[in-house]
């Protein structure tokens, strides 16, 4: 089994590459659990896979300059935006699939401790009713 160290996650937000700001990236992908138990006589639960859901947890270095990453992300709160993420650089392939979808940021915590790096930590939620796309080629 191949193992990888996360060293260069690629992150595009609204068509702009913010890879150089990335600190961490977690892609969460799931399906809703639907209870399909049909009667009191059942000896156990029956479950079906329901709707897909996805989110991305992102931590980025802050940039408070006019037009910097803070301005862009702050302005996008509550707005559906195109997202592309890869775990190992910008080249898409079998060992580095591209994850893409349209998502929305609803909350934007930003800050840090005195003497430490100023960061943005936020979650992007899939928001267009479409499952997260995974591709091994562009």
Integer average pLDDT: 92
Main beta sheet, described? 9 strands, antiparallel
The first-level CATH class is given as Mainly Beta
The total of beta strands comes to 9
Strand content: 35-45%
Roughly how many Å is the radius of gyration? 18 Å
Could you please say which CATH topology applies here?
Answer: Elongation Factor Tu (Ef-tu), domain 3
**CA-CA gap between termini:** 25 Å
Shape: globular
Output the structural class. mainly beta
Number of helices: 1
User: How much helix is in the residues?
Assistant: under 10%
One letter per element, helices H and strands E, the order comes to EEEEHEEEEE
CATH architecture: Beta Barrel
Poorly predicted sequence stretches spanning 5 or more consecutive residues: none
Number of domains: 1
Task: Write structural notes for this entry.
The structure is a single chain. With 138 residues, the chain is mainly beta. It has a single domain, classed as Elongation Factor Tu (Ef-tu), domain 3. 6% of the residues lie in helices and 45% in strands. The protein is built from 1 helix and 9 strands, in the order ββββαβββββ. β7 and β8 form a beta hairpin. The two termini are 25 Å apart. The model has no long low-confidence stretch (mean pLDDT 92).
